[in-house]
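Deviation from plan, reported transparently: iron/sulfur cluster complex.
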Amino acid sequence: MKNSTPSPSDAFRDTLGVLDEDGHRLRMYPKAVDGQFYKARTIVGFTLLALLFAMPWVHINGQQFLLFNVLERKAVILGIMFFPQDLFLFALAMITFVVFVIVFSIAYGRLFCGWVCPQTVFMEMVFRRIEHWIEGDANQQRKLDNAAWTTEKIMKKTAKHTLFLLVSFLIANTFLAYLVGSKELLKLVTHSPFEHLTLFVSLLVFTGAFYIVFAKVRELVCIVACPYGRLQSVLLDNKSMVIAYDFVRGEPRGKLKKNTIAPAEAPKQGDCIDCKLCVQVCPTGIDIRNGTQLECINCTACIDACDDVMEKINKPKKLIRYDSIEGITNNKPFGFTKRMASYSVVLVLLMTLLSYFLLTRKPLDVVVMRTQGQLYQEIDSVTVSNLYNVEFVNKTPETMKVWLRVKDVPAKINWVNSQSFIQINSGEVLKTTLFIETAKKTFNKTSNKIILEVMNGDKVLTETKTTFLAPMGGK
Ligand code: SF4
Ligand code: SF4
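Because the crystal trials were delayed, the predicted structure below was used instead.
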């Protein structure tokens, strides 16, 4: 049985780097880093930010490229419109996404958190940069926070928080553009806020929320609130790629000493010189040398910091690097495991299914239901009719003109509004009623299945089934 007494080396797991011994929040002052990973993350981060801010203004066939209009229950993805009628597609897409997240995390750990997550990108690329620019590096920030309120401190803090609020306002605008559409947002900008009070209040609420997240809550979002972060404990195993300290090479750690003893007699020392720079740059306040921890957001700052140290002391880089625990312990290259393969098969199946449904998705949804509580109506001694409720959903960016005909049955359709065709605007859900009229002798049974063809000009767009009630025996 496993010994349940924690070893002294595991004591770090009992505390959080962002809390003091009494459980009070400690403000993090991560040192600024520079290095190949930070440079690469800057390029990726700013590319993603450019896409995020630009996408609400990109339109395809008059539709916003990406839109998630919860209030109007409408979504546009890559210019394709989705409605509540597509709920099963949404559910399938969600399941596929969750499986993708699982497969990706099993293989690559929290790679997403460090490179793509909006929280990390905004925090490290925008807000942290503003902070370093106005208040200086970690030590200067610490000094400023501990200093009395002087004119300089008031000016610096005011400038920083004003910029934070401005950026939060910009993010809130973009967020709203994804929710209500950029055209709707433009109306708010060009008209008095009182004409769009709900939208204006939402904008202020979102601005406040983003400001609190990036100015105050910060790393606690990743450590406490983020469900993806919490999932890591069940997704990662020894073969997953994480940011890891090479303890085989680094230990026993020790301060760098001048070589006064003959190398043969000198005690064995690892490559880690215990400079603690990897800890000082960490935005979540952890020491990665203790092993993989839930708080690590894979920001790569410790890799850059340690590579810089290794370069200065003429040791090989990558003492901290992307690797699996097994890779470090057994010097094994990172590979594809059976666990990854089995989840990948499920993912491929789901993606195939989703692609099939997306490719065969009809541009027009039509539901024809016999009006409840109504039997057939005998128009005269030879003709019978049924009343139907019809719902059309136009999922295309264009207006559609359609008409209906009954397949293989000599029947006449009479629209209640007496039109011969129906016009449905883009994105419109149109409800109407119609009568289907036919000779009594057409059917022998009371309940009969009929097929309606939805026509656009001479082209059959789609078909839908319904029932037709008629007198028994066709009399
Ligand atoms: S930065 Fe590198 S050398 Fe310095 S303490 Fe961290 S692991 Fe050791
Ligand atoms: S341990 Fe390294 S990669 Fe993880 S959060 Fe800290 S600095 Fe970033």
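The chain has two domains: 23-361, 364-474. We consider this an acceptable substitute for the interim report.
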